[in-house]
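Re: the 677-residue chain
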Amino acid sequence: MASETTSTVTTPASRAAIRSGTLRRYGAQAGMVAVLLVALLFPIVNGNAGDIDAVANALAFAALALGLNIVVGFAGLLDLGYAAFFAIGAYTYGILSSWQLQPAWSSFWQPFAWLDLVQKVTQGDTSVVHFTLSFWIALPLSAAVAAFFGVLFGAPTLRLRGDYLAIVTLGFGEIVPIVVRNWASLTNGAAGLNGVAPPNLFGYNFGVEITPYYYVAVAIVGLLIFVSSRLRDSRIGRAWMALRDDSIAASTAGVDLTRYKLLAFALGASFAGMTGTFYIAKLQTATPDMFMFPVSVMILVMIVLGGLGSVWGVVVGAIFLQLLQSWFLPAMSGWLHSVGNLVGSPWLQQIQLAQSIELIFGIILVVMMLYRRDGLIPATRKQKALSFEQQNAQVGESHGFRMSGIVREEGSAVPALEIKGVTVRFGGLVALKSVDLTVPPGGVLAVIGPNGSGKSTLFNVVTGLTTAESGSIRLFGEEIIGLPPHKIARKGIARTFQNLRLFTNLTVMDNVLIGQHSRLHTGPLGAVLRFPRVRAEEAKARERVIEIIANFGNRLLPRADQNVAALSYANRRRVEISRALATNPRILLLDEPTAGMNPAETLELAQQIKDLHKLGLTIIVIEHKLDVVVRLADTVVVLDHGEKIAEGKPDEVRRNEEVLRAYLGRNAQAGSAGIAA
């Protein structure tokens, strides 16, 4: 009968790790209150309509930058056509609140008139419809329309990354203005929409007074900062950042790549759509030239300047660049004109720096890439240095691996993993040829063989990263061939990689939390609103991470909030194993887990793997160190050129003539004693 092993870890170090960052959060909250007060008081203190308008425009671009930051900064999907969604939101409200469309009145429109969405207007002998969509309804509606087009556009690009994705998004960004310019019956073409209705709040019409628009911009940016911050620090944000750093590792940890790419496109587009509605309402006009490629580039420069993935950074970058364009460059041009008048220089008298804004943006982008790639406010914070005791770990005997959630399945009559006749080809190369393999529940199987024998390919086909040409793979009797990696992870297969695949821009805590992605249930709405159930789930997940990494002592626990890129190679291996364990696997696949470790560390990790086996976990390990294989494995399978050439106990396999020949050639007898599988 299956039973579950449970344990808890409560140590001063673990409690400190859970509580870390509390003071920093309080400081951040105080800073946000101060920023909010400054924003609210600015129109009162300044009073200049031109300055207030400039800041309102800057806030609109900050909202756009926050949306593009989700796509580029969080999810790592380079989008060069983002202004297209800005245009979609703007024209959605513009068309539905102006006189551009005037269909004939009929009874069909009467329910919409009751909802105050249209009006009946009589012109001579005919009656037409005048759309009167409220600005406040248009904000979420334009966000939804833009999100729809975000998904529609994102779906065909799911297989693209990097330069190819950028080229496709650039094309989409050019298509939308062209459609707007040529569909004159809907958009009024190049002449643009005019007479867009201003917002009305409780009978107060905003008209052309700038101060109400300023406060709406502050509210929109505040809302989007809140949403972005909540998403970033949630299950959703971690999935995006895992996708950004390493999509292969993310998929094997249970992240549905398709869903989260589309979600990033949709949410990023919705931010732009909402901002487009605000922008056209403030200007009360829109033309296609307002949404061309330079706008997308400018927004991209804003998030690079502020810091990719940094919520507050992109806001600062957007406001700085917009005020640079509207305040500082004109002021500097005026100073240069004065100097030109003083020295009699016609060139200085005529210079207009604002006309060279694209050149200045390009220079800023180059300088940031050369000297401060993380931006003005980096997304990752520097961590305080560890103490001497925290930095120095003593290698010793394992006192047992303590981890809850492992189900003992040794008594099951169904094999944990059954592979029959699996063949994998890459063009004319046969990587695996009719491989058969059976792993009993609770067993430890070692897969060995020379380099290029198909060991990692075997793991790839089991976890769904590689497609098998033929054969069957059953997990506890259930066929899993053809399933995507994230579904296989959810069914209970976790793995590590021969070459480390960690999310290098994230902390140890976040890397291991991503392993729990498929076991958590928080969606976008829950991530933003953080219901009590969501907070409890997140707290439990973090406690689970502490429980797992505590098994490695002070090698990982003091480093829970440190970026994994700063860890030693051996500790990064431990993080990868911890991430795999966090998925609550039924079968754990370890691809050369002790690679890069010294002998003492190798023995320590081997003992910990053995302790995991004692808890009832089924383990398959690829390993080149013979002492580790002998110490761990019940059964050894040998692959050579994609075929299984031997299977048996470790001592039997190491004396097998065919195995010796595969490793050492025809002079197998000469090296039989020293073979390293």
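The longest strand covers residues 429-439.
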